[in-house]
Amino acid sequence: MSGRSGSCLLAFLFLLVAQLPSSGQSNFANLRNTPLQTPRVSQLPLPEPAPTLPRHPVRPPGTIGLPEMARAAGMIFSGRVTGIERRPATSSQALETVAVTFRIEDAIRGAIPGERLTISQWIGLWSSGQRYTIGEHVLLFLYPPSKLGLTSCVAGPMGRFSMDRWGWVMLSAQHLSSFRKDPVLGGKSRIRLSDFALAVRQASEEE
Questions:
Q1: Which residues contact 32 (CB under 8 A, 6 or more apart)?
Q2: Disulfide: which of 84, 85, 96, 159 matches 153 by Cβ 3.0-4.6 Å?
């Protein structure tokens, strides 16, 4: 009886193996022969090329060199403020202005030592902070007068220097930053007027 049971068990196992799919080995063989597929990676857009930088460095806003100031100025002088007068708009002058009178002490350009020179400035500049006080001792770079006869400091505060009681020109922090490479003014917070005038003349000759 046991021999018959063993024969039946063997026959059953034979039938079970025979019914298994024969594709397992072929699938393995096919897998080996199938080239691997590289997963597709979506291509990101390439970044745009960086803009071409200018050959010469661009000056930061609000800074200007002494050569540019000297060439832009129509008048360069030192003096004291002796008068301030507010002038309303008229039929001949549509803008309200402020007239500022100086007694010229030293003239580098466009003025005469000892004369009293009156300039006209638009009231808007006065309101924005470009003001003077009686007795103030300054050195100015002024633009040539416009068609309306108005002028102002070259590059705003850059065209205006205070002077101490001994007649030395005082340089602000903004001046020091802009003139740090100047052969005469570089690194100096105060300078003799004669040396300053020499620096201006040299800067005027630069191309």
A1: none
A2: 159
Closest CA to 84 of 34, 49, 120: 120
Q: Which residues contact 182 (CB under 8 A, 6 or more apart)?
A: 65, 66, 199, 203
- 105 near 193, Cβ under 8 Å? no
Nearest in space to 74 (alpha carbons), one of 143, 171, 172, 3:
143
CATH fit for domain 66-205, picks 2.40.50.360, 2.70.98.60, 3.40.30.10, 2.40.50.100: 2.40.50.360
Q: What is the pTM of this model?
A: 0.69
Residue 76's CB is within 10 A of a number of other CB atoms, namely: 24
Copy the structure tokens of residue 139. Answer: 């050195």
Q: How does pLDDT run across 183-202, given as a tens digit for each residue?
A: 899 999 999 999 999 999 99
Model confidence pLDDT, tens digit, residues 81-121: 999 999 999 887 789 999 999 999 999 999 999 999 999 99
C-alpha separations of 187 from 11, 61, 180, 204 in Å? 108, 21, 5, 20
Distance between CA atoms of residues 141 and 158, nearest Å: 8
pLDDT in tens, 144-153: 999 999 999 9
Count other Cβ atoms within 10 Å, centred on residue 73.
Answer: 24
Arithmetic mean of pLDDT over the chain: 79
